[in-house]
């Protein structure tokens, strides 16, 4: 893998894991941006193994735009409205960007104006911008699309993902409402604070790859309830319909102690395809690798706002 100079933007659990892996694989960290007062002004090496001793964490992204980076590895928020003001100056400075913002994986569905603006700016500056991660970005969209390659007469794609969040980071457990009363969970969903972000984006990405036009996309979000009416997690289902013959169903359960964790993909077509990944793909570890392994592909990609399905195949690395 060719080495690149990178800025790490966001140093939460996911950003730290990405930066650790990127440095481990030979990429050079040139700057770190984070707003946590406990991290500002401290050496990046205190949080990122392999970070150069002279890199100090800053809260002001404007001060690192000329740090000599090739690409920014961005991991801050899930909503495009939150990250759009962060992304524009980076792209305007001629920096390629890989972001774990879920809505950036297919922003045209909910934010077409912002997507068009970001695409035009990236094209004018000659850089690629893409939203990547495990979900959206791989397991519930890119992987199903790849599995349709030997198929014709595709009628339905169903993806089921079951995640035991006991095995995942605490912020994710909080995001899916573990430990909350049911009514508090419902208020959090209504306010947009709880639940997984990205299923409509994944459905739209699959449809785009298949050349389908979705008539509608519907999503339901319900709590997984355990003893004493305490929430253990979330069950979300997204359905997209194409005419009267095509359907995309994305079924996601993320709960503490979830039984039979797995990733399962079924393609109703000729021939039919069914694939099961027992245990499921570990989201945090996979996100680190997906982002870092994509660095050379994004740097070599055509300029503009890209989809995960538009990148050349991103192979894993054996380098240790």
Strand order of the largest sheet: 3-2-1-4-5-6-13
Helix and strand sequence: EHEEEHEHEHEHHHEEEEEHHE
The biggest sheet amounts to: 7 strands, parallel
Quick check: average pLDDT?
95
Domain module tally: 2
- Return the structural class: alpha/beta
Distance between the termini: 12 Å
Please count the helical segments. Answer: 9
What is the name of the CATH superfamily of the largest domain? NAD(P)-binding Rossmann-like Domain
- Radius of gyration over all CA atoms, rounded: 20 Å
Q: Please give the CATH architecture of the largest domain.
A: 3-Layer(aba) Sandwich
Strand proportion: 25-35%
Global outline: globular
Helical amount: 25-40%
Task: Give the beta-strand count.
Answer: 13
> Briefly, what CATH class of the largest domain?
Alpha Beta
Uncertain regions spanning at least 5 consecutive residues: none
Oligomeric state of shown chains: single chain
CATH T-level fold name of the largest domain:
Rossmann fold
Protein name: Dihydrodipicolinate reductase
Pfam families: DAP_DH_C (PF19328)
Domain 2,4-diaminopentanoate dehydrogenase C-terminal: 138-312
Helix and strand layout, with pairings?
Layout: E1 5-9, H1 13-24, E2 28-33, E3 57-58, E4 71-74, H2 80-92, E5 96-99, H3 112-125, E6 128-131, H4 142-147, E7 152-164, H5 170-175, H6 182-190, H7 199-210, E8 216-225, E9 231-242, E10 246-255, E11 262-270, E12 273-278, H8 283-293, H9 295-300, E13 304-306
Parallel strand pairs: 1-2, 1-4, 2-3, 4-5, 5-6, 6-13, 7-10
Antiparallel strand pairs: 7-11, 8-9, 9-10, 11-12
Helix pairs in contact: 1-8, 2-3
């Amino acid at each position: 893998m060719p080495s690149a100079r990178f800025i790490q933007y966001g140093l939460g659990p996911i950003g730290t894991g990405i930066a650790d892996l990127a440095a481990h694989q030979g990429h050079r960290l040139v700057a770190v941006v984070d707003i946590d007062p406990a991290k500002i002004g401290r050496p990046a090496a205190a949080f990122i193994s392999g970070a150069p001793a002279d890199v100090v964490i800053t809260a002001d992204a404007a001060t690192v735009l000329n740090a000599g980076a090739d690409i920014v590895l961005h991991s801050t928020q899930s909503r495009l409205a939150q990250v759009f003001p962060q992304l524009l100056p980076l792209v305007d400075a001629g920096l390629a960007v890989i972001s774990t913002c879920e809505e950036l994986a297919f922003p045209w569905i909910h934010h077409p104006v912002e997507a068009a603006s970001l695409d035009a700016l990236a094209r004018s500056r000659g850089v690629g911008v893409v939203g990547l991660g495990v979900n959206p970005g791989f397991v519930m969209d890119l992987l199903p699309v790849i599995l349709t390659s030997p198929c014709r007469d595709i009628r339905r794609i169903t993806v089921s993902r079951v995640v035991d969040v006991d095995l995942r980071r605490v912020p994710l457990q909080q995001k899916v409402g573990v430990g909350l009363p049911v009514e508090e969970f419902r208020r959090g969903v209504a306010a947009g604070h709880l639940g997984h972000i990205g299923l409509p984006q994944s459905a739209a990405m699959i449809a785009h790859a298949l050349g389908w036009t979705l008539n509608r996309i519907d999503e339901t979000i319900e709590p997984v309830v355990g003893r004493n009416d305490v929430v253990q997690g979330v069950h979300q289902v997204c359905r997209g319909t194409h005419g009267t013959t095509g359907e995309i169903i994305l079924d996601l359960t993320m709960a503490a102690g979830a039984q039979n964790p797995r990733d399962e993909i079924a393609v109703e077509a000729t021939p039919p395809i069914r694939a099961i990944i027992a245990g499921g793909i570990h989201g945090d570890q996979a996100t680190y690798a997906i982002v870092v392994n994509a660095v050379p592909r994004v740097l070599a990609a055509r300029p503009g706002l890209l989809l995960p399905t538009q990148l050349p195949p991103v192979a894993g690395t054996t380098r240790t």
